[in-house]
């Protein structure tokens, strides 16, 4: 297995299906002051890095990005948000959040929660400390949709917060058409408050940080981001719950609809990106 694949995509063995340093979060309903202070330092620092890397050191062609900015910063009180996108580079999160407005990038309260592979982002005590205060949640690939990280994200959605998920479940280095994991379906179906789901697709992030050595961010590259329209699952979820639909089937139905939308956005993003590169090369 290539080094990049081992680092970015590695699937844990059964012996690794646990957190080396334990669950990193306190009670998030009333987090201690120390946790909040550290998050309020780390998140603005990382947000500043993201803005500089994405918008100042590289160029972005954004389409409907205002929709993302609006839902992140100005959606109705108590309404949760789930954003979903493809995953082409290890730096997609946090660099893509350079699309957001400064006030949201610097807000530890507003910034997303996002699952991160436990066998990559939580392998050392410092990593665990840093990523957890940056609102990354250790997800154990291979442990299924009913693990602690999924329950934790549903609790955050219950509070009206924002969760971002890469439903491909890994860095898709081959840019293949991958069947989405059903975890995103569980987030939507089991959330006590049905979230707004906002899909978006990006092309070019793998040029900013290639999935091969040396893993050094590049400059002067072009990224295309196409943000879709919000998906409302309230009626569908209500109907399936009234019918007492099997949860596995419900997760699949929801995930399939998200996959269909991402597929449409992919076609558009790839065409736009190809046109931009063609114009740049003229």
Automatic annotation (TrEMBL):
CDD domains: LPLAT_AGPAT-like. It catalyses: 1,2-di-(9Z-octadecenoyl)-sn-glycero-3-phosphocholine + 1-hexadecanoyl-sn-glycero-3-phosphocholine = 1-hexadecanoyl-2-(9Z-octadecenoyl)-sn-glycero-3-phosphocholine + 1-(9Z-octadecenoyl)-sn-glycero-3-phosphocholine; 1'-[1,2-diacyl-sn-glycero-3-phospho],3'-[1-acyl-sn-glycero-3-phospho]-glycerol + a 1,2-diacyl-sn-glycero-3-phosphocholine = a cardiolipin + a 1-acyl-sn-glycero-3-phosphocholine. InterPro entries: Plipid/glycerol_acylTrfase (IPR002123), Tafazzin (IPR000872). The keyword Hydrolase does not apply. GO terms for molecular function: 1-acylglycerophosphocholine O-acyltransferase activity. It comes from the Eukaryota. Residues 81-205 form the Phospholipid/glycerol acyltransferase domain. The keyword Signal does not apply. Residues 255-282 form a coiled coil. Keywords: Acyltransferase, Coiled coil, Lipid metabolism, Membrane, Mitochondrion, Mitochondrion inner membrane, Mitochondrion outer membrane, Transferase. One of its GO terms (biological process) is cardiolipin acyl-chain remodeling. PANTHER family: TAFAZZIN (PTHR12497:SF0), TAZ PROTEIN TAFAZZIN (PTHR12497). This is Tafazzin family protein. It comes from Cherax quadricarinatus (Australian red claw crayfish).
């Amino acid at each position: 297995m290539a080094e990049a694949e081992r680092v970015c995509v590695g699937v844990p063995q059964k012996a690794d299906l646990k957190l080396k340093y334990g669950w990193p979060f306190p009670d998030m309903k009333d987090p201690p002051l120390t946790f909040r202070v550290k998050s309020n330092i780390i998140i603005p620092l990382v947000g500043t890095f993201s803005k500089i890397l994405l918008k100042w050191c590289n160029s972005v062609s954004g389409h409907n990005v205002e929709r993302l900015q609006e839902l992140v910063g100005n959606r109705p009180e108590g309404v949760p948000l789930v954003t979903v996108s493809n995953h082409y580079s290890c730096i997609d999160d946090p660099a893509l959040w350079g699309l957001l407005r400064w006030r949201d990038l610097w807000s530890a309260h507003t910034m997303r929660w996002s699952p991160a592979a436990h066998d990559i982002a939580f392998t050392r005590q410092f990593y665990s400390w840093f990523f957890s205060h940056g609102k990354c949640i250790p997800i154990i690939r291979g442990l299924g949709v009913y693990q602690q990280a999924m329950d934790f994200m549903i609790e955050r959605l219950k509070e009206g917060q924002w969760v971002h998920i890469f439903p491909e479940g890994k860095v898709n280095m081959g840019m293949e058409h991958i069947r989405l994991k059903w975890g995103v379906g569980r987030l939507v179906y089991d959330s006590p408050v049905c979230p707004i789901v906002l899909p978006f697709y990006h092309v070019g992030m793998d040029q900013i940080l290639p999935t091969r050595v040396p893993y050094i961010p590049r400059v002067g590259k072009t990224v295309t981001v196409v943000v879709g329209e919000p998906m409302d699952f309230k009626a569908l979820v209500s109907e399936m719950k009234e019918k007492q639909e099997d949860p596995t089937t419900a997760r699949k139905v929801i995930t399939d609809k998200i996959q269909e939308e991402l597929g449409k956005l992919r076609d558009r993003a790839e065409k736009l990106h190809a046109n931009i590169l063609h114009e740049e090369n003229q």
